[in-house]
Amino acid sequence: MKVEIYVLIALVAYFLLLIRRKKIYRIYQSVNNGYDTYSEAIVCARSKRQARKYHPSGEYDYETVFKDETEFGSWAKEEDVGVEYVGKASILTPKGVICSSFDAG
User: pTM, whole model, 2 decimals?
Assistant: First the structure.
């Protein structure tokens, strides 16, 4: 009886990990293509909605990123960011920006 309870708990925990599993997304923009701008990034997030909120510099909060920048700055408005699913992330992969492409001027 005790073993069955442990197996059941382990199965439930595994199922919950699968449900909340993080994914890898490519975020990109094509409205701000000047010098010193980001064109795309690879991020680890739980959803497309969450992935879209990342700035390729590593910031997550749009108000923090854009408070000192005029117009778009080095990225694009959240509604202009495209998101493409790449694959599943390892459980050990931290949420956030994995790598980004910066077009220096």
Answer: 0.75
